[in-house]
Amino acid sequence: MSREQREQARSLISKAELGQTPAEQRAGFDEMFASRPLGEDVTLSPRTLGGRPALDVHIDGAEGEGVILYLHGGGYSIGSARTGANLAAPLARSTGVPAVSLEYRLAPEDPFPAAVDDALAAYRELLESGQKVVVAGDSAGGGLALALMLAARTAGLPQPAAAVLYSPWTDVSLSGGSIDSRGDFDPLFSRAQMAESADWYVGGQDPRDELASPLFADLTGLPPLLVQVGSAEVLLDDSLRLAVRAAEAEVDVSLDVVAGAPHVFQYFTGFLPEADEALERAAAFLRRRLGDQPVG
User: What pLDDT is attached to residue 296?
Assistant: First the structure.
């Protein structure tokens, strides 16, 4: 990534205004992301999955065996199945398998563990259909993907074949050093903004609960993980510490850190070469794991 590309990417991002209501934040987020073009080869089909609204994301010619369960980001308080489709579609296109983007319940109206319950119900339904499942998510959706796998383990369900996590938020207690040390470098988030979202999500509950902050969980038995993060993020340490914790639990984990890249830099596919390369690494990782995983 050249200095000019890095500066241009960062100039397209700005920190949100503090003090906005959840409704105001959602409206602004949807205005930016809920109508982004996905490509003429993409078909979105509404459905219900695990009792929640969802979108089937189908790419022309993507007929590979399996399905990607995509969990959108947005601090657990904004975002939708449609905004998640912005990242699910290119991943499905590069992987060659369809995806489904879930609209889980949002805080503060539905605080923790509502999102975890919704993700688990959706995952259970996909398993019962006999499909090979991989999980992917960005930001809060990345943390939710980890919580889903922990909840599935507790429920005695099989693990997905693999998980791809884009800039995952794994610690809503905000104990990572980069929350402060990267605050001026991160063009999108600050501690104050993350704290607001965390407070809405946990709703007075313990932020170190393993399903709220899966960084603190025993990760034993989780499937192979690919974690991608930029160095220009307050959430950098959420990924670095996760990779260490996963390795200590004998989980197969791969970590991509892209210098100078902002939060969920995969949004810049087609603009930043590093985003295109990260997408291809994620797709190759999922294709390989889907090929290794028996149905059921």
Answer: 42
Q: Is 263 a catalytic residue?
A: yes
Q: Based on the residue annotation, tell me whether 233 is a catalytic residue of this protein.
A: yes
Choosing from 77, 196, 263, 274, the catalytic residue is 263
Do residues 135 and 145 lie in contact, with contact meaning Cβ atoms separated by under 8 Å? yes
Whether the per-residue pLDDT at 2 is higher than 80: the answer is no
Active site residue 24: no
The catalytic position among 77, 80, 94, 139 is 139
pLDDT digits (tens, 9 = 90+) for 126-177: 999 999 999 999 999 999 999 999 999 999 999 999 999 999 999 999 999 9
Peptide bond into 108 cis (omega under 30): yes
Q: Which residue in 103, 125, 196, 233 is the catalytic one?
A: 233
